[in-house]
Amino acid sequence: MKRKVWAILMTIATVAVMTGCGGSKSAESAAPASEAAPAASEAAADTGADASAGDKVWIIATDTSFKPFEYTDDKGQFVGIDMDILAAVAEDQGFKYDVQVLGWDASIAACQAGQADGMIAGASITEERKSSGWVFSDGYYDANQSMAVEASSDIKGFEDLKGKSAAVKTGTMSAAYAESLAGEYGFTVTYFEDSPTMYQAVVGGQVAACFDDTPIMASNIKDTGIAMKIVDGTGNDPAAYGFAIFDSSKQELVDMFNKGLANIKENGKYDEILNKYLGE
Asked: Is 168 within 8 Å of 178 (Cβ atoms)?
């Protein structure tokens, strides 16, 4: 995993020297956020983002598909809880930003390479990540991880995975959760780059189960009708999602995020966003 992220980091640095920083589904073929994420770019425009004005425009990296936190809707617009919270916070604090849709690993690498200022992608706040250089905002949503299987599966718990394979998304809390259980329950872990591909592997029978953030799986099952079910009793303790930077010189961005988050929670905008996507 470390070798993979380092390879991506070096690729981004090389591309940056040749073409400058962009955004797309991979760091190697960077496209402007206006192409990759129309709704996010519109949000930036709403806050007055205009690099030609000479004001600071913060580059924010995100994942490609992590519904309902970031995803492309039926109209081709890049939307989600993270995108709406970022837009509301930016409006409250008066800062400008440009969203770059890179994917999970590439978002981390872009921030570490200085090609992005911050990252919002349903990233769980953990001590391990803090010790490795992540600097988090206050938490903006509590979530845990759990296991899901194909809808007709007779798997009822971890013990039923013995001799089988479970899918995870690389570099995530759900991957760490599955890895912590694999030895005890005798299953292997198979890695995927994104949740939708992982879910299809479960439905198609390539793997017996998958581990992912519970609200993500619940949203996909509800909204897409994918033939999966979350297995009761498989969730771990919840952790908060946070906005993240990887360079202390960007602390101003975290401070603004924290102030804006507190304000939108107080004025009701935060609850409106959750209601919009989760019906909470």
From this structure: yes
Q: What are phi and psi of 80, to 5 degrees?
A: 135, 170
- 7, 104 Cβ separation under 8 angstroms: no
Average pLDDT by consecutive 10-residue portion of the chain (280 residues)? 40 38 34 39 42 73 93 94 98 98 96 98 94 97 97 98 97 95 98 93 98 92 93 96 97 98 98 87
DSSP helix/strand/coil, 257: helix
At the topology level, CATH places domain 145-230 in D-Maltodextrin-Binding Protein; domain 2 (3.40.190)
Domains 2-142+239-278 and 145-230 share a fold: yes
- Place domain 2-142+239-278 in its CATH homologous superfamily: Periplasmic binding protein-like II (3.40.190.10)
Whether this model's pTM surpasses 0.90: no
CB atoms within 10 A of CB 153: 17
112 neighbors 46 (Cβ within 8 angstroms): no
Question: How many C-beta atoms surround the C-beta of residue 133 within 10 A?
Answer: 14
> Coil, helix or strand for 57?
strand
- Taking the C-alpha atoms of residue 95 and residue 92, their distance in angstroms, rounded to an integer, is 8
Burial status of residue 2 (CB atoms within 10 A of its CB: 0-12, 13-18, 19 or more):
exposed
* CA 130 to chain CA mean position, Å: 17
SS3 at position 78: strand
Structural contact between residues 15 and 27, judged by C-beta atoms closer than 8 angstroms:
yes
Residue 227 Cα distances to 197, 277, 280, angstroms: 14, 21, 24
- Label residue 240 exposed, middle or buried (CB < 10 Å: 0-12, 13-18, 19+): middle
Domain spans in the chain, listed from the N-terminal domain onward: 2-142+239-278, 145-230
